[in-house]
Amino acid sequence: MLRVIVHDGADVGADDMRAFLAARMQLAPHRVAVIIDQRNIRSMTREAQEAGTDGADKRPTLAVAILIGSPIAVIIANFFIIFGRPHYPTKLFTTEQAALSWFEELRRAEQP
Amino acid sequence: MSGRDSPLPAPVTPEMHLELLEPRVAEVMRLILRIAGGDFTARGDVSSRRDELDAIVVGLNMLAESFERERLARDRAEALLADAIDSYENAPGLFCSVDAASLTVVKCNQTLADAVGLSKLALHGCSILDLCEPSSRDELRARVARARRRGW
Question: Measured between beta carbons, which residues in chain B are less than 8 angstroms from residue A49?
Answer without folding.
Answer: 62
